[in-house]
């Protein structure tokens, strides 16, 4: 009998919440970054607005990808940059109500970071991070065993 669960059962159980958190974080940026630039920098020319929104979104997306890669490699502490990014999205979006944004854009800009925070704090995501940590420890033990003669 194999003590480790199969990859299929692991992915069936944890992949939806893992991808849901990734998509929620990416969609948070998709809606939040342009709304923030439009609200806080109203006199910025449209071409500069698009350029800075694109570059800022690209950099933040790279951060999301890196954090999720590190979580998948068994480093659960990398969830905290994701949590802080999603919290900053919420905190940056809340005051933009005074700039009269489109209601759907404003609502989605708040919905996706809150959904991402909910998914990151879910029992299943916490279980997944714990199991990935255990897998990392097993991998390190196997590597250490093969390095010693």
UniProtKB/TrEMBL annotation:
Keywords: Membrane, Transmembrane, Transmembrane helix. The chain crosses the membrane at residues 12-37, 52-71, 78-98, 104-121. It comes from the Bacteria. This is Membrane protein.
């Amino acid at each position: 009998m194999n003590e480790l669960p199969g990859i299929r059962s692991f992915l069936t159980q944890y992949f939806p919440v893992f991808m849901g958190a990734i998509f929620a974080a990416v969609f948070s940026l998709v809606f939040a970054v342009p709304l923030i630039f439009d609200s806080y920098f109203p006199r910025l020319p449209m071409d500069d607005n698009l350029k800075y929104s694109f570059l800022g979104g690209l950099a933040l997306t790279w951060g999301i990808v890196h954090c999720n890669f590190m979580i998948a490699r068994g480093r659960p502490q990398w969830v905290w940059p994701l949590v802080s990014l999603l919290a900053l999205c919420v905190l940056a979006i809340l005051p933009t109500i005074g700039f009269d944004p489109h209601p759907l854009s404003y609502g989605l800009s708040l919905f996706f970071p809150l959904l991402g925070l909910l998914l990151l704090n879910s029992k299943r995501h916490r279980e997944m991070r714990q199991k990935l940590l255990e897998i990392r420890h097993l991998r390190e033990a196997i590597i250490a065993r093969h390095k010693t003669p």
